[in-house]
């Protein structure tokens, strides 16, 4: 019994769903951000699995770009969160409702 | 050997991913996120993508999680201070996640993937470092340059972002 592509895709999907669930349910901005990163990693796992089972390089190379973009995104996003905390003194999503109404 | 490792690592990854979502303390979440990333790197090794596993550990587990912990420390988040969620919000989250799971799983199950794809016995292209450089410097040369510019712009953006808010606060 060997591990097939579908098994990897299953793990990837479940990881993505867990991240999605966290984004919807948690109210702490930093944890929501962590869950977003979890979703990115899940997509990366699917790309690597497809690349492995199709014997191509494209998925693996795309993972490089995803990692680079994720690193840049984390830097900018955390800078925004810190700037927000300086002005509003909170990181709870419920209290960040300046655009409401 | 490989199936056992696969099941162990995927159980580790999914379990710690759930703990990221459910743990009360933000520092605990970051630590479980770290373990989840290490498990994913293990899965990459099982998929013969050794370089990507190393890069994932270096960039994500090294830099990103450290940055998260640094920000958690900087903002001084009190552990366990979590507002009670309304039942409707939890229910809506569960339903939305379940719908997403069912949608993607049915796509995986009924798509024509398993029939057309060979098994993993063939040699992996991702294991050879030479192929990465060959691709990155020929086919993907333009995206590499664009990503370089993106990193530069992100760096400038972070500098501007953290400077301007300081000035605005002082002028108040």
Radius of gyration of chain A: 17 Å
* SS summary, helix count of chain B: 6
Low-confidence stretches of chain B: none
Our measurement of the CA-to-CA distance between the termini of chain A, rounded to an integer number of angstroms, reads: 58 Å
User: What is the third-level CATH name, the topology of the largest domain in chain B?
Assistant: Four Helix Bundle (Hemerythrin (Met), subunit A)
CATH superfamily of the largest domain in chain B: NADH-ubiquinone/plastoquinone oxidoreductase chain 6, subunit NuoJ
According to CATH, the fold-level topology of chain A is: Helix Hairpins
Structural class of chain A: mainly alpha
Strand content of chain A: under 5%
| CATH architectural designation of chain A | Orthogonal Bundle
Please describe the biggest sheet of chain B, giving its number of strands, its sense, and whether it closes into a barrel: none
In whole angstroms, the N-to-C terminal distance of chain B is 64 Å
How many DSSP H or I helices of chain A? 3
Number of domains of chain B: 2
Overall structural domain count of chain A: 1
In the CATH hierarchy, the architecture of the largest domain in chain B is Up-down Bundle
What is the helical fraction of chain B, as a range of percent? over 70%
Key structural traits:
heterodimer; A: 101 residues; mainly alpha; Helix Hairpins; 3 helices; 77% helix; B: 172 residues; Four Helix Bundle (Hemerythrin (Met), subunit A); 2 domains; 0% strand; extended
């Amino acid at each position: 019994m060997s591990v097939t592509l579908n098994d990897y895709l299953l793990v990837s999907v479940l990881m993505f769903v867990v991240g999605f669930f966290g984004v919807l349910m948690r109210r702490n901005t930093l944890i929501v951000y962590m869950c977003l990163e979890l979703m990115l990693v899940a997509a990366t796992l699917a790309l690597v699995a497809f690349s492995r089972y199709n014997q191509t390089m494209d998925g693996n190379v795309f993972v490089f770009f995803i990692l680079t973009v994720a690193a840049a995104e984390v830097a900018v996003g955390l800078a925004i969160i810190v700037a927000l905390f300086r002005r509003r003194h909170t990181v709870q999503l419920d209290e960040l409702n300046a655009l409401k109404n | 050997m490989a199936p056992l490792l696969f099941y162990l690592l995927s159980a580790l990854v999914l379990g710690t991913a759930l703990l990221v979502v459910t743990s009360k303390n933000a520092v605990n979440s970051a630590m479980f996120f770290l373990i989840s990333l290490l498990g994913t790197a293990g899965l990459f090794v099982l998929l013969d993508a050794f370089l990507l596993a190393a890069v994932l550990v270096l960039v994500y587990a090294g830099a990103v999680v450290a940055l998260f912990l640094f920000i958690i420390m900087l903002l001084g988040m009190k552990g366990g201070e979590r507002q009670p969620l309304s039942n409707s919000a939890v229910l809506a989250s569960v339903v939305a996640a379940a719908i997403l799971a069912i949608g993607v799983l049915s796509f995986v199950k009924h798509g024509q993937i398993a029939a057309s794809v060979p098994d993993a016995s063939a040699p992996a292209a991702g294991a050879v470092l030479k192929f990465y450089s060959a691709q990155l410097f020929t086919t993907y040369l333009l995206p590499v340059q664009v990503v370089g510019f993106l990193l530069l712009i992100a760096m400038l953006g972070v500098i501007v972002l953290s400077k301007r808010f300081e000035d605005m606060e002082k002028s108040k």
